[in-house]
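Regression check, 28F case 648:
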Amino acid sequence: MNQDELLAPVTESYDENSIQVLEGLEAVRKRPGMYIGSTGERGLHHLVYEIVDNSIDEALAGFCDKILVELLDDGVVRVTDNGRGIPVGIHPQKGIPTVSVVFTILHAGGKFGGSGYKVSGGLHGVGASVVNALSSWLEVEIADGSHIYSQRYECGNIKEDLKIIGDTEKTGTKVTFKPDPSIFTDTTRYDFDILLSRLREQAFLNAGIRIVLKDNRSDADLPDREEDLCYEGGIRSYVEYLLEKSKKDKLNENVIYLNGSQGDSVAEIALLWSTGYDTKIMSFANTIHTVDGGTHESSFKTALARVINKYGRTFKFLKDNDANLKSEDINEGLVAVVSVKLTDAQFESQTKAKLGNTAIGTLVNNIIAEKMMNYLEDHPAEAKIILDKSIASSNAREAAQKARELQRNKSGIAGKTRMPEKLTDCISDDPTKTEIFIVEGDSAGGSAVEGRNSTYQAILPLWGKMLNVEKARVDKVYGNDKLTPVIVALGTGIAENFDISKLRYDKIVIMADADVDGSHIRTLLLTFFFRYMPKLIETGHVYLAQPPLYRVAKGKRYFDAFTDEEKDRYFAELGGDADVQRYKGLGEMNPEQLWETTLDPEKRTMLKVSMADAELADQVFTMLMGEEVEPRRKFIEENAVFATDLDI
Ligand code: 28F
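Current build output:
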């Protein structure tokens, strides 16, 4: 049955008419889920969005710039805007005030040739009547520049004629409603933060519109809250906001903003790269978040990959026989908002969260192909940062792939895996008692082998002499299979093949000097563990050895000092005339010294690496992947320490 059949011929009296209208809204009360998705918490909040959407439509038409949303006692919500006010004149077809049509006739918007707005979010004007139908009561007040009009409804029914309640010079619409508890049986309690996040999104997507959210509920347990949301930068500000929320740093300094139009459709795109690896692409159609993407989002991704590769080839970031960069490499760290507005949005899928219009995909594609290319050409320094990052991501991905293949080949061998040549294993194979020391350099490795407890302590020297910091890119290290001996010795495998039950040692101790090269080697290993064996850290198996810096001795008494302060203290304690010997590095200790200071479980100091450091390692990794040598070196120096719990 369509709406025309439901409606009686128009008469002057709304009483008669409203009986028919009632039938229309009764359908909404019978099957609320069809109109607002659910009658749970989501549906409850949806009511507010429907009303606010009408104000936003008025704002997009250029007549409103402020929207106030207030939460009142008893589950009541009030939305006020300073638009033109919903028309109060008699509707030519319905014979009742237009405002009454808007609130009591289902599909009012659709029936009269859309909402009257070119681009509209929400349900195209059906929202007001749906909210009315699902409210115990709703009151609308309209200021038209001379009078204030008011009308009240209950469960969607007109309760009184539209009446004038005062004079005014202002214009605008105020809607106050109480969601019907007999419909919203789960909850009628509004969550400030849920509303805030959706309203903030709307404020970003509609640049310059001011939305104020106020909590005026008098509950004792609620603090008074007010949020004033207005973003002149629109989706540019949105990207900045998303980046700040991710707690990552910007990779390129400026948000790239591109837009274009085709007929009545417009598309705008804002993007920025962070130093992280997550990708955040948010797409919207008519300010509705298209969670499942659609033509606008997929065109964006494809076109972006194409243009980055094209730029990379033209400006020789990619050699002739290099493979193309993949989308996943380019998208690592990407934060982007794609917002399209179109008159005839077609949503696919049950959830209506996927856009189907093909023409808008073409528009987005053209914007990226032309304007992004121009942007990169006009900003070569930024382009280089973006290309370098994508290439580093690609290298890391390929290296990880290699490591996985290696893993697969290894696990294909029957029987006991052959241990790396450089590993001097311990005698015990009790994985609750054994320890492996990953030692920087061959000479320290030699001393460690001689000084260790051979029953429980295994030694694995790495790298021979440490690579030059400038040369030792993390991705190169992975690529050169430098970490293969570690993977094989630990026995667990990596990434999706990781199996903690195969771990061959209880403690994995990274033993490196307290200098820049040493902190670099720690960074490399920890980063590798974080990314490919995070469980190792989570379960507390990874440690950092702490070799002392000084020995302070007088006669037969001596102390090892791990910091300058400690050294000074011991020096004073021994009477101020003790010998102070500076340990030059692990490589220069003899086996006995190494045992006493670093290996002996009774005397040594070790730091247990915690997952809380994951965030930091995450940043370090990205920094290490960068091209710039100086910030990288500085960063490593400043972030040399990775451990929190002291474990003696
Ligand atoms: C708190 C909720 O709903 N604001 C609205 C307007 C203004 C007009 C309008 C709305 C007429 C026939 C569709 C005014 N003057 N806030 C709101 N402000 N609706 S809703 O018109 C609705 C159309 O059906 C408006 C001239 N044109 C439009």
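Comparison notes: The chain has 22 helices and 25 strands. The longest strand covers residues 135-144. No diff flagged against the previous build.
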